[in-house]
Design a protein that fits this description.
single chain; 277 residues; alpha+beta; Jelly Rolls; seven-stranded antiparallel β-sheet; 15 strands; binds calcium ion
Length: 277
């Protein structure tokens, strides 16, 4: 360390610098609550959504999978879960309860669809807390989870909104007013079928319905929290807000099902669903 740097640490000089800095810090701290109140709520960036669900919400459902499955069928997982794609391939085990963990191994090719496992939810504002792990058994492991309402017309298969975690990216997607809106889907499909670029207005609209950002998957267990609050959907991992996106579809009044769409392998544990009144 140079003589000059060491000299800046003498008490006299710290006192000289410290006093105005201390006043500034005091001023900032005293103003902070006013600034937060002025914005009307906790800022999303510092909000812990698991704490929000647990303190303000009502638990609708919880499962820690400490049992054996009763078979490969629609209701084989038990506790109210349904595997929508199970009966397409009854000879294949796509959901295995093993050591208190739900181990999903989708027969996507044989069933012609990613494993779709869902449970009743039913809220406007609220969300899910769960643990997940990519076990590293397949190269293309990804996890899509979100909300479905098949009772509202105009939405293909009732797909409302999802988060999707892939190897290098994650996405928050409003499908209700995006790609699964029947009018949009009808207009978009011919371009997809012919592998042609979308009209610029449609492409611009769909861009507003999805948030995508880099994220790197690993093979550790993680706590995941997915919430919808008014027209915002937020994803947190291990207590940190990772992504948030606003779009009108997230405000759908009834998220009837909580759903997993799993194309290959994912392990799941300690799922809870919460409604915030
Ligand atoms: Ca468990």
């Amino acid at each position: 360390m140079s003589q000059g740097l060491r000299r800046t640490k003498t008490p006299r000089q710290e006192g000289e610098i410290g006093q105005p800095m201390g006043m500034l810090r005091l001023l900032t701290l005293s103003l902070l609550p006013c600034l937060l109140v002025a914005h009307g709520a906790e800022p999303a960036s510092s909000q812990n959504d698991a704490a929000w669900l647990r303190s303000k919400g009502r638990q609708l459902f919880a499962d820690s999978f400490e049992r054996e499955e009763s078979g490969n069928g629609l209701k084989g997982i038990g506790n109210g879960w349904e595997s929508a794609t199970a009966d397409r391939v009854p000879q294949l085990k796509q959901a295995d309860l093993d050591g208190g963990i739900l181990k999903v191994n989708s027969a996507s090719k044989e069933a012609g669809h990613a494993a779709h496992i869902h449970h009743d939810a039913g809220f406007r504002d609220g969300g899910a807390i769960l643990k997940f792990r990519f076990p590293g058994l397949h190269r293309d492991e990804s996890l899509q989870l979100g909300f479905v309402d098949r009772a509202t017309p105009g939405i293909h298969a009732g797909h409302l909104c999802y988060a999707r975690l892939e190897a290098r990216n994650l996405h928050l997607m409003d499908w209700k007013t995006g790609v699964m809106n029947l009018d949009i889907r009808k207009r978009r499909q011919p371009y997809l079928d012919q592998r042609k670029p979308l009209p610029t207005d449609l492409e611009a609209l769909l861009k507003t319905k999805q948030l995508s950002q880099p994220w790197k998957a690993d093979q550790q267990w993680h706590e995941l929290v997915l919430v919808c609050k008014a027209d915002e959907m937020r994803l947190s991992l291990d207590g940190k807000l990772i992504a948030s996106h606003r779009s009108e579809g997230y405000a759908h009044p009834n998220k009837r099902w909580f759903s997993f769409l799993i194309p290959s392998t994912v392990w799941i544990d300690e799922v809870s669903l919460w409604q915030v009144p």
